[in-house]
Amino acid sequence: MIRVQNVAKSYEGKPALRGLSLSVDKGEIVALTGLKGAGKTTAMDVIAGVREADGGTVEIGGVAMDSEISRARQLVGYVPAETPAPRDMSPRAYLKFLADARGLSSRDAAGKIDAAIKLLGLQDAADKSMRRLNRAALRLASIAQAVFFEPEALLIDEPTAGLDPKEIAAVRGALKEVARERAVLLASESLTEMCALANRVIVLSEGRVVSEGTPDQLHNMTRLSDSVRVVTRADEAAARAAFSAVKDATVKSAKVTGEGLELTIQMNGDQREALFSAAMKANLPLLELSPVRKPLDKLLESLVSEQVEGGVDEA
Asked: What is the domain range of residue 87?
């Protein structure tokens, strides 16, 4: 439902997008991520019809943005990172204002307002002044106005920026519902958050796609293949003796945590089975044996600087 092909955009001769291509189908959530200045917001503006591309094509529901811009814009709901909201109005009153501006009858408006409020889970906040709402409710109210006229595509820039964990959970749940009937494209600097929300993630750098994959594929790329994390309930000397006896395995660090004794073991090859056998032989209660992983946002830095070889196809 969103089709972008070879889109280019420059500002004062400086390229912001260089041949961007992507697609998002109905029921799918796709995310654009990258460091600051990667071209995410420019991409969202061009796809929404807010800015005109210098080249390439954008289609929403089969309607070309360059030749039928008015019609294409009606098929898009767009929530920028900073969405000014009338703080003296409630979400319901604001949606009523939008309905009146579009010339909807009172009956049609009431049905659409109730549907939007239910879809975004705003029932408890619908009649409160927006100045009294928390950040999550304000963000959901912005999304409600974007989906009010039932667009085929929804674009949201930084959907959870500045929210606490509870507020993020509320927005995530609402977006899953919103995506059932439309194509959703998100943008954020946080690869971690986009992997939690999206079906596919596209990494941009200097206006180009440098990597693309599912959250699982990207998570697999965070694994440091030569190291494992071991947690056991044992004293350090016994644990070091047991694991150091494994060929091609070296205990690099050990520390006591709330879980028990945590060790980082560097391997030459995959020695996990041998480490497990060593723990059993020494009667060490083994609570965890798992790969050491780098944080997802560190992976983003690596992808952008081309320090990760092979891309997601090798994950």
From this structure: 2-214
Q: What is the Cα–Cα distance from 255 to 39, expressed in whole angstroms? A: 42
Is 251:265 a contact under the CB 8 Å cutoff? yes
Same domain? 81 vs 37 = yes
Q: Using the 8-state DSSP alphabet, how is residue 233 labeled? A: S
- Same domain? 209 vs 227: no
Structure tokens at 52: 């005109």
Q: pLDDT 10s digit of each residue in the chain, 315 long? A: 999 999 999 999 899 999 999 999 999 999 999 999 999 999 999 999 999 999 999 999 999 999 999 999 999 999 998 876 788 899 999 999 999 998 999 999 999 999 999 999 999 999 999 999 998 999 999 999 999 999 999 999 999 988 999 989 989 999 999 999 999 999 999 999 999 999 999 999 999 999 999 998 887 777 666 888 899 998 999 999 999 999 989 999 999 998 899 999 988 888 889 999 999 999 999 999 988 877 777 778 777 765 334 444 433
| pTM of the model as a whole | 0.78
Whether residue 46 sits in one domain with residue 9 = yes
Other beta carbons within 10 Å of 307: 9
Whether residues 192 and 119 fall in one domain:
yes
**What is the length of the chain?**
315
Indicate if 156 and 253 belong to the same structural domain. Answer: no
Intra-chain end-to-end CA distance of the chain, in Å: 28
